[in-house]
Amino acid sequence: MIKLTPPTKHFILAVFLFLSSLIFSQTLNVPPRTSGAMTGSQFTVAILPLSFTARENLIYNEFISGNVPNFYRNLSPVTSTAVISGSVQSVTYYVTPDYIAIGSDADYFLCPMSPIVATKITDSIGCTLPTRKMVNDIYAQAALKLPPLTIPASGTMTTVQAFAQHNNMVGSQRSSSVTAYPLGTLVGGDKKDIVISNLIYSTANRVVIYGWHTSIGNPIQPLSNVHADTYMDYSHGMRFVQNAVVYNGSATTVKAILQSSTLNPLLSDEGVINPPEYPYGNPITTLSQPKSFAVINKTNNTIEIKVKNDANVTHYKIYTSTNGLTFSAPTTLIKSNLILSTLTPNQLYYVKIEAYNATYSVTSPTSELLAAVPCNYQDSVLVVNGFDRASTGNTYNFVIQHASSIKANNKNCSSATNDAITDGLINLNTYKVIDWILGKESTVNETYSTSEQTLVSSYLQQGGKLFTSGSEIAWDLDFSGTVTDKSFFANYLKASYVSDAPNNQASTWYKSVNETSNSIFNFTDTIYFDNGTNGTYNVDYPDVITPVNGGVSTMQFTNLNTNKSGIYFSGLFPSGTAAGKLVYLTFPFETIYNSTKRTSLMNDILTFFFSSAITTNIADLSSNDILLYPNPTKSIITIATSIKPLKIELFDINGKLVSENNNTETIDLSELSEGMYVLKIFTATNCFVRKVIKE
């Protein structure tokens, strides 16, 4: 197998990463390689006893799952020219830097395969195979041209043993030049190409091969279709070409150019090639609406979109808005690099997406709406939309009311669909506060599924803070739920179901008031939620609950003292290791009108979650057990102590918690405003308080 020693591997990787950042602009559309994926050596052993069909299936599964070397992911630009309408025209396309392999950078296997599985793969990732002209141009522009290495002709040429033998020969050849030409350099000469050609259809079920250029540029293999499409020998290679290209400033595809009566000379020396593909693809006619995705802040001008992988998708069309109502023209991004950059720092952006297949120009229905704020300082609020129910008034954009209220209270957020949480795209424990939207989600769609209950329980046990609102949560989990549902509701939402609506009267009660005693809310007037005429939807059945297991009632329906509509909790949840917090409302937060009342209510919730009382121990202030430096500071402050801090909290002069860290000896103030702050340092036995000045 092609293997590199660790020191060489590290040097090559460092050089490659530097060069790739300068040269490459397109990437192969496959998922990241997992840590447990087979190496090239292991893959060779795995396919050795397999039948043709089983081997091809394994090749497909390994490739689509992302088991390809990392250096293959950065595609190399190649430019082809031709005289079009009397003038020289050109088009640049992007190709894999070498022939396709399975495995890692340090141990990969150049993998012969049939055009049958190659077509299936290329269709799935938005690629195609090259033509004879393209193979010639790729070889001419390859920085590294390897002399062909042959094995004497025999009946064993088509065996996996011969594939492995030639792979080792090319591996040794490639390793000898890797210092001058790092992995990721465009390489030619090491294999023949399987190509797109009109010869595909001149005789049925044939593979067309060409190339294997010598050092003087002459191909050993002329264009040929003498072999059946199930034939492959050690010399065959697959070079994938990204189908999407830009010609004269307009988006098009390699296949469209090959089918064009005027433009085909750019990429073909056979004239029009139509159809420009082997007849084994499964044309994609529809794509599913994206449901499992997240929009998260990365830097002060960058947002990342994470989407569950769909093999039929090559790109995503990204729509952005600053108000959630009017959107920009879509930006089309390859699915392996969904990064929105050059955004305005600290601006709330709303994002919706469409899946897109560039090979077949197919677009999915538009997703629900999510939101994020590009920022360096993470306020750690995650909005999760779990309101999937196709009910009257569900516009799938209620992240607007939640995210805008969070932003109005000087907190920044990311967001995700509930599917993204259960699919593992987002780790809840990354965030200090979760705002889980449930709207009118009910029994059919499940408010909190079993897997969601597990994740939320674990989050609260580790000190997480959950705000959840919805009118059917108690009905679904407690009245209609399983034993597991009821246990989760009682122990983690701290409530018990009373009735399906106040006085069991549907479409009657649309008001809630603060309970003045023991409440976390500061408002004294009435909260109104929508009956269907105030911009969202009719909350016709707002649950009535009562607190249990330490929950505290904080809101009630107007004029109905025993009909509770809100609960909060602060403390250890069952099996908890750190104190967590909960706010649960039985009417959806997004249905509160007007925006001023929503913002005020969100302020009280965030204050409850982020703030805690500051107590000063006079003895601690003069203690030398803990020293801070530099103080004043412009950015990082270091805590010098012989006692490991377990937790650090930083408060502004108004007592608002602005930063919280566990098990650290430094804290970063670079994103904070100038002024005085109070640092609260918790050890195993003491709490030390210090003043900090940010310059």
Task: Give the helix/strand layout.
Layout: E1 2-3, H1 6-23, E2 26-27, H2 40-47, H3 52-64, E3 74-84, E4 87-95, E5 101-103, E6 107-110, H4 115-125, E7 127-128, H5 132-141, E8 144-145, H6 160-175, E9 187-188, E10 192-194, E11 206-213, E12 219-228, E13 236-237, E14 241-242, E15 244-247, E16 250-253, H7 254-259, E17 293-299, E18 302-307, E19 315-321, E20 331-334, E21 339-340, E22 349-357, E23 362-363, E24 370-372, E25 381-385, H8 399-408, E26 413-417, H9 418-422, E27 433-439, H10 450-461, E28 465-470, H11 473-479, H12 483-492, E29 495-499, E30 511-514, E31 526-529, E32 544-547, E33 552-557, E34 564-571, E35 580-585, E36 592-593, H13 595-610, H14 618-621, E37 626-629, E38 636-641, E39 647-651, E40 657-662, E41 666-668, E42 675-682, E43 687-694
Parallel strand pairs: 8-9, 10-13, 25-26, 25-27, 27-28, 28-35
Antiparallel strand pairs: 1-6, 2-3, 3-4, 5-6, 7-14, 10-11, 11-12, 15-16, 17-18, 17-26, 18-21, 19-20, 19-22, 22-23, 22-24, 29-32, 30-31, 30-33, 31-36, 33-34, 34-35, 37-38, 38-41, 39-40, 39-42, 42-43
Helix pairs in contact: 3-4, 8-13, 10-12, 11-12
